[in-house]
Amino acid sequence: MNAKGRMTIDEDTFKKSDMSKVQRFFQNYGSSIATNASLVDYYMTTQANAANGYTSDGTYNVQGNARYASNV
Questions:
Q1: Within a 10 A sphere around the Cβ of 65, how many other Cβ atoms?
Q2: Do the beta carbons of residue 37 and residue 45 sit within 8 Å?
Q3: E strands within the chain?
Q4: Full-prediction pTM beyond 0.70?
Q5: Which H helix or E strand runs over 37?
Q6: DSSP state, 62?
Q7: What is the pLDDT of residues 8-67, one digit of tens each?
Q8: What is the distance between the alpha carbons of residues 5 and 10, in angstroms, rounded to a whole number?
Q9: In the structure, what pLDDT confidence band is assigned to residue 69 with cuts at 50, 70 and 90?
């Protein structure tokens, strides 16, 4: 990883690598990212579906919001 957080690859080392291992690495990494993205989507959708949003008088209607009322 470089200073900007980007992956850099040495071309000569890459060309000498076992390509089946390189492919497996990127497949596993991609699968991991997809799993995490799916979990984030699931949790955010679940939370959005649990919330009823704002009421007509402007209060926020979310299950369990009473415990947060003093913080708002």
A1: 13
A2: no
A3: 51-54, 60-62
A4: no
A5: helix 19-50
A6: E
A7: 889 999 999 999 998 998 888 888 888 889 988 888 887 776 665 666 676 666 655 555
A8: 16
A9: low
What are the φ and ψ backbone dihedral angles of 61, each rounded to 5 degrees? -105, 95
pLDDT band for 68, please (50, 70, 90 cuts): low
**In which region does residue 58 sit, left (phi positive, over 0), alpha (psi from -120 to 50) or beta (all else)?**
left
The length of the chain, given as a count of residues: 72
Are 54 and 61 in contact by the 8 Å Cβ rule? The answer is: yes
Two tokens, residue 72: 């708002």
Cβ-in-10-Å burial (0-12, 13-18, 19+) of 13 comes to exposed
